[in-house]
Each structure stands twice: as structure tokens, then as C-alpha cells.
Amino acid sequence: MPTQIKARDNAWLARVIVNGREVDSKLFPPGRKKGPEWLAARQWEVQRKEEYLRDHAEKTTLTGSELLLAWGELYLAHAERTMLHSTYTEKKTVMRTLFAYCREEGITSVEGLTKPMLYQFLADVADERGAKRANVYRKNVLAAWNWAIECVEGFPQAAPVLERIRPFPVEVDDRYVPPEEDVIRVLQQAHGQDLVMLLTYYFTGARRGEVFRLLWSRDVDLDGARIRLTDHKGKNSGKRIRWIAMHPELVKALIWWREARPREVDNVFMQVQNDTCMGLPFRQRNHLMPKLCERAGVRPFGFHAMRHKSAAVVFVSRGLSDTQILMGHSRATTTDIYVRSAGLYADRSMIPSALGEHVIGQTAARLLEMEMPHEMETHEAFCKQEPVNNRLQ
User: Fold this and answer.
1) Cβ atoms of 62 and 154 closer than 8 Å
2) Which residue has the higher pLDDT, 137 or 54?
3) 61, burial (CB in 10 Å: exposed 0-12, middle 13-18, buried 19+)
4) Sheet of strand 11-18, all strands in order from the earlier edge strand to the far edge
5) pLDDT tens by residue, 313-324
6) In this structure, are residues 99 and 72 in contact, taking their beta carbons and an 8 Å threshold?
7) Fewest CB within 10 angstroms: 19, 24, 306, 342, which?
């Protein structure tokens, strides 16, 4: 992290530390912490560290422990530069846990990361923290391995051994989809930027980070009523971009917020709690939804539940294909799993009604009335309880 140097009029000193040794540094102008100058210094640290590690790996034939350590350093530098802070923190925790396990087991090379070794590592995580957490570790290590195949010089090109380790079985809880009345109550408690942000989540079905990353200059086309969402769900955590149409109400809300925002910055949504953070983009908003749900008196739900609700609304009215487009899933099978876990396939009693209400079902009913009215009357007469009882007597 940048350090403020009082002897240099509070200028920010950016430093690159590799294996406990400073390999580069640079001074940046003074300014508030997490302000533009601080952010520029921090960005330089991240980018310069990745450049240094990559240059060092390319100029040197790395073997054994050097390649193993270079893989971890390079991947975390890449994650810090391209991913959300929360995602980077998760990956840093996973990689540090893996490398600590390697030290305990005396593993000093990538070749030592065998299938039995990695399985035991994940099994230990499952025993301590549960199967679901072990699968998170598996996913992150696999992503790091696939990235290294493409980006780290000298890294083994064989298929990752983790692909041959199946995820641990987990009892999957149904995704919570808040009822319409709860969503409305929460929206009624939100005002200003908070209301515009929640409407953005609802009308776009976006992920939390996709909304936090929105920029006026790049992602919002008010004249064309389009919005651009960006994620890192592509191959090897690659960037994916999709444009979706905006509802007129969302366009209206964004136009109002652009005029009413307290500071003219490029990020669409900003921190406004105090002068120190004013105008900075959000990295997280952990307290907003619990506070709104408490005021509304409803079961707590978060930003991602708004995404669930959008998926539910579109799926019920438009079907799986349109839901896939809204969610930004590359495969329909992912969307199918998503809506199934949300319980949207559960009410099978509605299937006969839907078939009967269709024009084919209505036509069939009319045809039956014309085709066999007498048979139906005879059948009804025969099944009356009183004539049957008299005949039996």
C-alpha cells in the first residue's frame, strides 16, 4: 500500500515488494487517502509488480520452488489488478493456504502438486470448514492453474489435475427469491442514489460488481437506452461484455441521478457519506440492504436476491432463453440450474392449467362438447348415486 512521506510534503510513496525485498519505488503527489493521487500510486504498485514478476519469469529459467512461487505471485498480481477487492482477497486466502500446506508437506515444485496431494489438501479444508468451502478452494486453485498455463513461462501445459478431482457433495439450499410485496416494501424505504441503484439491479439482473463498476462514459448510453455490463466469468477469468436494453423507468432514474449527484465523477454510483470518500466508487455496501429490510419489516435479502427476482420475473413471463440473456450466462444449462434452485420449476400443478388455457386446449374443449354430448350425458346419468342404489336393491 502507498505510504505518506511527511518529509516530502506528504507525497505518496509507492513501493514494489517481492519476497520481502523492495525492487522498485515511485513518488506521487500528495492528496487524501483513497483519493485520486493515492489510487494512482496503488495502481502503479499493482501494475509494476506484475510487470516485474513477468519480466523476471521470462528472463530466467524458473524451476522447482521458483516456478511455484512465481505462479502464486503472478496470479495474485493479476487478480489484484483485474478483479474486485473481495475476489482478490478470497484468492489470496486460498493461495496462501495452499502454499502453507505445501511448506508443511515439503512440496517445492509444481510437479509435486499431484492429484492425491491436492485431494488431501481439499479434504482437510472440507473437514475444517465444510464441503462447500472446499469446493470454493478447488474452483480458485483450478482458475489459477488454467491462467498459469496461458500466462506463466515454463508452467506445465498438461491438463490440470484438479479437473480429475470431483467437487465434494454439498446439500444445496434453494436460492431465496423474495416475494413481490417484500421487494416493493424495500424499494419504498430507499431514496436518492439507493433507490436508483436498486432499480438498476432489478431492471438489469446485474451482479453486484457489475453495477459498482458502471461508468457514465463507457457503460451508459441514455440516448440509445442501453447499458453495458462487464464481468470476469470468461475463460481463465477473462472479461466478458454485454449490452442490454434499459426500461424507460431506469433511463428516467439514471437521467435524474446524473443531474442530482453531489459530485461530477465518471463512476455512476459513488460514496457520499463524508468529504474524504466523496465521489469514490463503491467496493462494497454491506449495510444498505440489511438496513432497508429492517425498516421494511421483511426477511433480509441482499443485492443478489434482486438478481434472483429479476430472473424469476423474466422466466415466468418469457421463458428460459430470455432469462439466460438477462443473466449473462454463456450456457442455457447454467440458467436452468439457476432457476431450478430458485424453485421456479416446483409448482407442477400449474402445467395442466397452462395447457388447458392455451388456444389448443380451448379448441379441444369445444370439439369435445360438439363430438360427444350424448355420451357425456349418459355417463353422468349412469353415475348418479340414487339409480345405482335402487338397481342394487
Assistant:
1) yes
2) 137
3) exposed
4) 3-5, 11-18, 21-28
5) 888 888 888 888
6) yes
7) 19
